[in-house]
Amino acid sequence: MFKRKVSAIALSALLPTAALTAAEYNSSALWSNHTPTNIKTATTFGGNEIKGLSKFRTLSTEPNDLISLLNQAPNRNQKGEGVVIDLPLPNNNFVRFRVFEDSILEPELQKKFPQLKTYWGYDESNPKNRGRFDITEHGFHGMFTYNGETVLIDPGNQKNQYLNYLKKDAKKIESFTDEVLREKVHLDIQTPEIGIQAVDDPDGLLRTYRLAVATTGEFTQFFGGSVSDGLSAVVTTINRVNEVYEVDLAVRLNLVADNDELIYTNPNTDPYSNGNGDLNSNTRNINSVIGSGSYDIGHIFQTSGGGVAGLGVVCGNSKGRGLTGLNNPVGDPFYIDYVAHEIGHQFRGEHTFNGTSRSCGGANRSSGSAYEPGSGATIMAYAGICDDENLQNNSDPYFHTHSITQISNFIENGGGRNCASISNTGNNPPVANAGNNFTIPANTPFTLTGSATDSDAGDTALLTYVWEQYDLGSSSSSPATMVDNGNRPIFRSFNPTSNPSRTFPNWDDLIDDTSTLGVSLPTTNRDLDFRLTVRDTNGGVSIDDMTVSVVNTGSAFTVTTPSSGQGLTAGAVNTITWNVAGTTGNGINCSAINVDYSTNNGDSFSRIASGVNNIGSAAVAIPSGDTTSGRLQLSCANNLFFALSDRFSADSDTTPPPPPPPPTDECINLENVTAFSNRNDGTFTANDCTIELNGNIWRATTETFTVSASSRLEFDFSSNEIGEIHGIGLTQGSGASSNRVFKLAGSQNYGIDDFTYNGGTQSFSIPVGQYFTGSGFRLILVSDDDAGGAGSQSEVMISNVRLVD
After folding, report:
1. Is residue 511 domain-shared with residue 641, that is, in the same domain?
2. Residue 535 belongs to domain spanning
3. Measured between alpha carbons, how far is 487 from 354 in angstroms, rounded to an integer?
4. Are 698 and 783 in contact (CB under 8 A)?
5. Whether 642 and 696 share a structural domain
6. Each residue of 69-95: pLDDT tens digit?
7. How many folded domains does the chain comprise?
8. How far apart are CA 650 and CA 359, in angstroms?
9. 420 lies in some domain
10. How far from 297 is each of 206, 407, 464, 651, CA to CA, in Å?
């Protein structure tokens, strides 16, 4: 288990403990929907388009009212309640946040630019929804999580107008050709952290690094041309980056006191070329302007299309080797996909994608870190720029578990430990528990469920969970190769969620019979290693590992009845069947299954049978109530895997019910037995509940029975010798089926031979419902001792027969 005891701020100390106070403001009056007739694309200040965004909400607000409200926000480091502000959501609703001032400018820089303010806040009703906000020369920016989605608020192109949209709806427009790499990662020779052991123990520390960001004249001109304009863009970007780095890494970046001296306004006189060559001159220029001792990490923003960074250079002689440029450097595609990614390299994070298409090709794939299928989806992956291996358009705003481990190693044990300002916030990390290891059949869905605890009051409600496969293997080159070959990663990462369980493949895909790129079932004999990463959203992170061993038994564990087009009878006992697929052995050892029933196509289930023998068939009672959206889920009672049936209908039975079995305290009357088949050259004597069979004779009752899953056949039996077959059974016709006859003694191989007769009179209780179910059965009584039998004529005595439920 990997744990890190770190936190930016103990959120539990900030959670509201009282009702709303007079200092709070009903901020819904701040916003009004704004629908100008001439808006066809989403444009920010200066007419700069948010590329690829067509789905958004437009609002307007009075800036002075918004600024006045935010000026009342207390400092995040102080106890107290934040100001209350209603933030817009793209679905035309609002969510109420408590907001605190949280400056990312060093005090001297903040004094120079008092109009630039940064804030942090959380959702009153769900504190794990949190985000960062700013007021700059360009207006108000909001970037926050809401129930698993990233919501953004950006200034629009018209006065007092704002755009409100989801990150996923802003498609990254790639400005790179096949010949131009998105970035080149340079390895700084001063990085002794390579090869160090993983972090084992939490250190309880928040690390703050002094960040110096230079901008080319072209970048500053893009945002208006003044130093304050360029610095405003830097503040918005780093404020957004800090939200991710604080939650995942307990790392905070503060802009240095003299950062304004690095904001260049004239492309003709600045010391940069606005190209990748600026990587080599940036450290030298920053050292010359503000001094090497004034910063811990340096970066440069420009408008060329690319990113370049030194690997693990923070605190070292090459600490300024970081560059990010886009010709449209606005929004999360710039902040997260590029800037957070490049700074991640400077903190020793390597690429995590396993694909090789387009930008994923060449030397960009890092074989020792390629844990994500295809393009990957997390910050250190390449979402959106790997052609048909793209899992999605943009990177999600969190780090893969491997990136967390790599960067944590660097800042705690590597070169990154040498210059951070370290503070102990007192936050305790969660403790993750990924659970036990299991063995499952190939080609079969499964669900992983973990758990976590947190000793900090209030933090349990904040915990989020991410299940990620943690296997390295051969690369892929297309969707067709992003499948199991015995070693490569086959399960992509998804955003942190409050649910500690994850189903493989995605539940919606199972229901809809579809597939998601980067998610494919294992088909080979192999081990799948998984990591559960638990975040307390305050910088506390805990990681625990488990392994799923996969055995290819030759077939998948599947439901065979009901299948597509078949129906079941509601309010009655039905026979269901499944392919056991070798799951009772092969190291899987699943002896029993549970059966769950859904009437709403899998949206919810209820348990209708537990501990059913895993023999491929069972009689289960389907609850009353008609449905056209029935589903059955059969899951191993002591394992992870399950099978989902096709969708079916369940209708009420209108036929009369079959006759009930005799009362359990009464034996079956055997006086009126009739001849059965042609085995009647022996004799019999019957008296009430007892029958004696002599020689070769089979008899059967004239009544019928209904056998349910819980039915048992109880009786007494004795035989004077071992003939060919002595036994008892149930039949639905004129012939005997060997899978419904129970051999109690005999030399011939026939029937179900799971019972041992030891002589004398012996009582038997056979769980017939575990072998077959249904209605219309007759009782058959067997003494098979024809000319081929052994010894003298046999005498078989059967008495006190009862069918018990």
Report:
1. no
2. 427-547
3. 12
4. yes
5. no
6. 999 999 998 877 899 999 999 998 999
7. 4
8. 51
9. no
10. 16, 14, 30, 68
